[in-house]
Amino acid sequence: MMNNTLDSRVIECAKKEDTNIQKTLVWVSLIILFIVGPSFIQDLYQVWKGDPHTWWTDRNRPLALTDVGDSVEVYINGRLLNKHIEKQSLYLSDGSGRYYRVALEDVKIRRNNWPTVKASLLASTTLTGIALGIAITMLVAAAVYKRRSRTS
């Protein structure tokens, strides 16, 4: 009789522990879903539907040619713009008919930073996507755990 009572108490305690594990899995996964999910969706939406034309450098603060030398090369008649400026082979008119040599400071560039922003957003979605995958797996595990505990 005592063994039977002890066995029923152990089974009852195990069922409570199973319920606690299941509740923990559900709550943790829901918290992850509600915190990380909106960020994931927003970043993906920005990558797919975002306006790539809004990521240009400021019109009032263009970059010097030397600042973008590692990402932009400008050629005129088959020769780099920098080489033309060094050899002083380019001239500009000031509008009144006078000409002067183009200096490096005369050349300003606006760059579209969309590829860099897009890469950053995709890197972010990789991390949030992994977190969402873990959360969904935890929800499925909790559902399977509950189903198995009902059948046993």
Outline of this structure?
The chain is mainly alpha-helical. It has helices spanning 2-49, 81-86, 114-151; strands spanning 63-64, 75-76, 79-80, 91-93, 99-101, 108-109.
Written account of the structure:
The chain has 3 helices and 6 strands; from the N terminus they run αβββαβββα. It has helices at 2-49, 81-86, 114-151, and strands spanning 63-64, 75-76, 79-80, 91-93, 99-101, 108-109. Strands 1-6 form a two-stranded antiparallel ribbon. The chain has a two-stranded antiparallel sheet with strand order 2-3. Strands 4-5 form a two-stranded antiparallel ribbon. The protein is rod-shaped and about 105 Å long. The protein starts with a helix and ends with a helix. The mean pLDDT is 84.
- Tally of contiguous helical segments: 3
Structural class: mainly alpha
Give the strand order, joined by hyphens, for the main sheet: 1-6
Number of domains: 2
Mean pLDDT: 84
- Tell me, briefly, the overall form: rod-shaped
Q: Low-confidence spans: pLDDT under 50, at least 5 residues?
A: none
Helix and strand pattern: HEEEHEEEH
- End-to-end Cα distance, whole Å, is 23 Å
**Fraction of residues in H or I helices:** 55-70%
Strand content: 5-15%
What is the count of β-strands? 6
Q: What Rg do the Cα atoms give?
A: 32 Å
What kind of sheet is the major sheet? 2 strands, antiparallel
